[in-house]
Amino acid sequence: MLLTRSRKWISPILPLTALTVLMAGCAAHSGGISASTKPLTPGGYTELKEVSGEDCQYYLLGLVPLSRTNKLRNAVADAMNDAKGADALVKVTADTTWQWWILWVTACTQVHGTAVQSH
To answer: Is residue 10 a part of any domain in this protein?
Structure first.
């Protein structure tokens, strides 16, 4: 009798657990590479430091946006804010990541590069 009750309890839990695990995940996509974020003349700038920036957007249930943007320009601005006096980035790479959770989705654009100041 006890064995029958426990089987009845376990049978709905296993598919729900499997579904929960399958609903989560992540993905990454390379966005590209650029020599700089604006035209620069060789030797016409001073390298300041390596920086990173990010901009993210969040979705409820993967459909309803909870935040406004996921834009490359905002990620570049975030990266340049890390170096005082920076007006461009060189050696720029950009990537986009997606994370799927049970109740929400996160989409982020990340930028990495070297902050520079033009002469």
So the answer is: no
5 domain residue, yes or no: no
What pTM value is reported for the model?
0.76
Written as one string, the DSSP assignment of 49-110 is EEEEEEEEEEEETTTEE-SS---HHHHHHHHHTTSTT--EEEEEEEEEEEEE-SSEEEEEEE
- What span, in angstroms and rounded, lies between the C-alpha atoms of 12 and 4? 14
| Pairwise CA distance, residues 1 & 117, whole Å | 77
**Inside any domain, residue 2:** no
11-69: per-residue pLDDT in tens? 667 676 666 656 678 888 888 899 999 999 999 999 999 999 999 999 998 889 999 98
User: What total of structural domains would you count in the chain?
Assistant: 1
Q: What is the distance between the alpha carbons of residues 61 and 103, in angstroms, rounded to a whole number?
A: 5
Looking at the DSSP bridge assignments, the partners of residue 109 are 55, 96
